[in-house]
């Protein structure tokens, strides 16, 4: 294996290769990511065959976790779009919320949904509704997409029982109640402030012709008068959320897993239940004749999303196998106290996020490293800083980037201006909150 400085340089070169292929040469993102992964593994001494094996393992591991949920989520969205259910939800929400507050309502919706579930599931379930809502307002497209990202990412990053904040008390040795309070106190204000800043910044950067490829989920006929009711339209979305929340809450309360709730609350079963209800809503509203066509329409975007998302997972996995991210952390070193320790925790999380893509891996790694540091800084402050850094800059080696980009119908530049920019702004406010707790506590 090569030295730490070479490993760090290889990460930058690999990312540059992928960006060059996608943006300049207009090569398919999946192909570009695999080429970048090949360079990273071979140039970093992983070996020819081991690099290829790592690419396959990274793709397979990611698909095992989110492949089927992605397919089911897109099918739910397509069925709701075609029968008018997504538009019905959008119309109801638009009538209830003044237009200028819609971004904040979207952020709050994303946050509430993402507390018990993963970011990707929240986005998969809500994106058809958000696109329909956008069609009913005069808001720009990146505003509604970015607002949903900010809300879902904020809750997923800061508030237990999502994995990283739930692990923080054990890694840093402080109480779960402290993490819950800190996550709520910092997380929700950070979401609101981030949306306020983001909607102003993105308007100046956006170019519709260059940043949007093709907006999906536009199959719903706005002229339909036989739309399903608001409650019926909401059921396919609410059911998987309820089942996952039920499983998570029961385990948190009892401290023990329940085999039946674990089954019902798994991503696959929960989304399958939502899909079954979506089929029922569709058939009752439209009839069974076009059901096969609706599924066929859903498989095309699903295949594209799965391919690109899996390739992003392969790219990140190769980087992990080369231990390049660990080399970067070693170059940083660990020392300091007070606000300095908070900034260091954020920096480690940021380096890990940029270098290998996974926010979960970045946050856990940063908190694990900081757990060995002697300091008087509150554990919740270090946790929030680590988690904020781990969320900071999601880009082409992050599967979440491709989920948002492809499901929103964006070009790579559009993904950078929505997913990447919105999370970067949110992470900055998370860091401010962490510093505030470090100073006050």
TrEMBL record:
It holds the Pfam family GntP_permease. The chain crosses the membrane at residues 7-25, 31-49, 61-81, 101-127, 139-159, 179-199, 230-248, 268-286, 298-319, 331-352, 364-387, 419-440. The keyword Transport does not apply. It comes from the Archaea. InterPro entries: Glcn_transporter. Keywords: Membrane, Transmembrane, Transmembrane helix. One of its GO terms (cellular component) is plasma membrane. One of its GO terms (molecular function) is gluconate transmembrane transporter activity. This is Gluconate:H+ symporter, GntP family/Gnt-I system low-affinity gluconate transporter. It comes from Natrinema salifodinae.
